[in-house]
Write a structure and sequence with these properties.
alpha+beta; PH-domain like; seven-stranded antiparallel β-sheet; 3 helices; elongated; disordered C terminus
Length: 162
């Protein structure tokens, strides 16, 4: 029996992501550690510099797309529906959009939400990493609740998505 005093989630749940300083710091730190680990390799300095250049390019593209949300392929706007679908808008001006499903492998933690999107037009899952500074506190809480609620409904249905 449902508790009448408990508020119900309103659909669609629309979340507009902001650039995340926390994610930028994490991505820069991990890429910096990767460059630091290149120093321990027993290869020529030319190869080390070439590999460091590749890691630096990876850092630039990752930070632009996932932390600053300034890439044309960045997901900036998410609208969650009661049936488990998500409407996403891409780009700085949020002009291009698509609808996709949420993978049951998405994760919601108190300090992090990783949303794995399954698009019918792509064979790979598309990740959206959300740290608390990318949303208001209430929106971040609503996102975590929605992800846990969706995971519970997928488990009850018995979906075994690999």
């Amino acid at each position: 029996m449902e508790d009448a005093t408990r508020p119900r989630m309103q659909f669609p749940l629309r979340l507009i992501l902001r650039p995340s300083r926390q994610l930028m710091f994490c991505l820069a730190s991990f890429h910096g550690a990767a460059i630091g680990s290149l120093l321990t390799l027993d290869v020529t300095w030319t190869l080390k510099l070439l590999l460091a250049g590749g890691v630096t390019l990876s850092a630039w593209f990752s930070i632009r797309r996932y932390a600053w949300l300034s890439d044309a392929a960045s997901i900036r706007d998410l609208s969650f529906t009661a049936d488990g679908m998500v409407h996403c808008r891409l780009g700085v001006r949020a002009t291009e959009s698509f609808t996709c499903a949420i993978s049951p492998h998405s994760t919601a933690l108190p300090w992090l939400a990783v949303i794995l999107l399954k698009s019918p037009h792509r064979w790979r899952l598309r990740p959206v990493v959300v740290l608390p500074d990318a949303l208001s506190e209430d929106d971040f809480r609503a996102l975590r609740i929605w992800l846990r609620w969706k995971a519970d409904t997928v488990d009850k249905v018995g979906s075994n998505d690999a």
